[in-house]
């Protein structure tokens, strides 16, 4: 078998057990119960029970395999397989598929605020058109060293506003706006430092 990729068709809360997907190819046939098939949404494993109708899955358990149940944005990355062995195995020294030292994964598929995380996090921008009115707040002064990696998965000129928070080491720093080139893979790596975000790396991203 092989992993099948799709995305969420709507936001879901941390407790939702009915999820809407853009496609249910690779999932159990409609009406087949008790499949117990694994599904990974961002960094959260879920145990799928059945597919009541095309485009909808019923989940038996959230936060499966040592992960944490959390809310997910529309267009969050989803993958599944009927063979659990298709998923990455537990790393040496780990106790689950996503041990605590691995970055959290968050997808952003609509305009809004990018939440300041409490651990190193990879954010994937999944909106097909350019994100606008999307903001990033200041990290706490007790979060020095926290890293946030924000990568575009779509060919769109996303704009993130972090008002006077982007320390890029050039005249006028800290700056306010991160504008992504309209190419997949444009990326920004930020590190919390004394209440602002220092720019560690900007690939295809203009700070102004």
Features:
208 residues; mainly beta; 6-stranded antiparallel β-sheet; 16 strands
Characterise this structure.
The protein is mainly beta and 208 residues long. It has strands at residues 4-7, 18-20, 37-41, 44-50, 56-64, 77-81, 104-108, 113-114, 121-125, 134-136, 147-152, 159-167, 175-180, 187-193, 196-203, 205-207. Strands 7, 8, 9, 10, 11, 12, 13, 14, 15 and 16 form a ten-stranded mixed sheet that branches. The chain has a six-stranded antiparallel sheet with strand order 1-6-3-4-5-2, with no helix packed on it. The chain is elongated, with a radius of gyration of 18 Å.
Overall geometry comes to: elongated
Beta-strand content: 35-45%
In helices, the fraction of residues equals under 10%
Mean pLDDT: 92
**Whole-angstrom Rg:** 18 Å
Short description:
This protein is mostly beta strands.
Task: Please outline the helices and strands.
Elements: E1 4-7, E2 18-20, E3 37-41, E4 44-50, E5 56-64, E6 77-81, E7 104-108, E8 113-114, E9 121-125, E10 134-136, E11 147-152, E12 159-167, E13 175-180, E14 187-193, E15 196-203, E16 205-207
């Amino acid at each position: 078998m092989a992993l099948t990729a799709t995305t969420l068709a709507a936001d879901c809360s941390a407790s939702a057990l009915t999820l809407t997907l853009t496609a249910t190819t690779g999932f159990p046939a409609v009406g087949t119960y008790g499949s117990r098939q694994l599904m990974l949404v961002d960094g959260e494993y879920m145990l799928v029970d059945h597919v009541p109708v095309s485009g909808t899955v019923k989940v038996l358990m959230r936060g499966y395999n040592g992960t944490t149940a959390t809310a997910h944005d529309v267009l969050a990355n989803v993958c599944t397989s009927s063979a659990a062995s298709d998923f990455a195995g537990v790393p040496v020294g780990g106790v689950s598929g996503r041990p605590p030292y691995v970055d959290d994964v968050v997808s952003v598929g609509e305009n809004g605020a990018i939440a300041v995380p409490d651990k190193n996090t990879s954010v994937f921008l999944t909106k097909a058109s350019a994100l606008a009115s999307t903001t990033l707040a200041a990290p706490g002064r007790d979060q020095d060293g926290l890293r946030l990696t924000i990568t575009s998965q779509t060919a769109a000129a996303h704009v993130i506003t972090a008002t006077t928070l982007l320390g890029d080491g050039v005249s006028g720093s800290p700056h306010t706006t991160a504008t992504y080139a309209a190419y997949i893979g444009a990326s920004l790596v930020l590190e919390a430092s004394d209440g602002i975000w220092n720019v560690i790396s900007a690939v295809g991203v203009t700070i102004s």
